[in-house]
Amino acid sequence: MEEPLFLPPGFRFHPTDEEIITCYLMEKAADPSFWSVAIGEASFNESEPWDLPGKAKTGEKEWYFFCLKDRKYPTGIRANRATASGYWKATGKDREIFQGKGELVGMKKTLVFYRGRAPRGVKTNWVMHEYRLEGNGLFFNVSAFPRDEWVVCKVYRKRKAQPSAAERMGGALANELLVAAPPHQIPDESAGFSSSRNEDMEIAASASAGVTGDSAHLVELSPERCFAIHDLGFDNEWKYGVFLG
């Protein structure tokens, strides 16, 4: 097993798309024995995405690998992207990669990992950029390379979007209100809060417009989508509901 690469503090392996194609993938395609101190080799059919960081030579948030494409059918061109626990699914359009004065040298495909089997797979936050050679111009000719197709794959885990400050405040307020409210004050469907989202919205809109009382008003609490109606006409109590659906 190859030793991982330890770079000095402050150094990162962060090549451009063009560098991945021209400095690494072209070399690997021309000579399969070519190796890089920063790019390992892996089979994406035999490895789950969460296992790949441990197989990489370097990387903290993104990891690079040479990968020999596995054909789904011996005589076909479709790639086999399935693993034991899921599959990689392409998303969006492939992007062209150019060198020099607009010379096409490669393509980049974006894929997302799904658990389970298509078409009922569950989307995860594991993402892969797959780089392949493309073009027959001045710098190289794809047809001159062997049929076995080498690609470079960059894998990373997409971070979930962070809630805004307003959403965090709203979420905290919702928790405080719902925890502080006595159980008998939190209405269910029998108290007029329907499980229908449209009806809930109408209730909230009416409260906001003052239909339920001169002093009634609506407070919307994101991201839980709770609302609280404060109506002094009903014993100065807070009435609670949830936007369902």
In words, what does this structure look like?
This protein is of the alpha+beta class and 245 residues long. The protein folds into two domains: 17-157, Beta Complex (Metal Binding Protein, Guanine Nucleotide Exchange Factor, Chain A); 165-242, no CATH class. Helix content is 18%, strand content 30%. It contains three helices and nine strands; from the N terminus they run αββββββααβββ. The protein has helices at residues 17-30, 165-180, 197-209; strands at 40-41, 62-68, 86-99, 103-115, 122-133, 150-157, 217-221, 226-231, 237-242. The strands form two sheets. Strands 1-2-6-5-4-3 form a six-stranded mixed sheet. The longest helix is centred in the C-terminal third of the chain and has 16 residues, at 165-180. The relative contact order is 0.12. Mean pLDDT is 74; it is low at 177-245.
Structurally, the number of domains stands at: 2
State the secondary-structure class: alpha+beta
Shape: globular
Arithmetic mean of pLDDT? 74
Task: List how many beta strands DSSP finds.
Answer: 9
CATH class of the largest domain: Mainly Beta
Tally of DSSP helical segments:
3
Largest sheet strand order: 1-2-6-5-4-3
N-C termini distance: 51 Å
Task: Report low-confidence residues grouped into runs of 5 or more.
Answer: 177-245
Portion in beta strands: 25-35%
Q: Helices and strands, in N-to-C order?
A: HEEEEEEHHEEE
Helix content: 10-25%
| Cα-atom radius of gyration | 27 Å
* CATH fold type of the largest domain: Metal Binding Protein, Guanine Nucleotide Exchange Factor, Chain A
Give the biggest beta sheet: 6 strands, mixed
Identify the CATH architecture of the largest domain: Beta Complex
The CATH homologous superfamily of the largest domain is called NAC domain
GO cellular component, one term: nucleus
Domain NAC: 7-158
Protein name: NAC domain-containing protein
GO molecular function: DNA binding
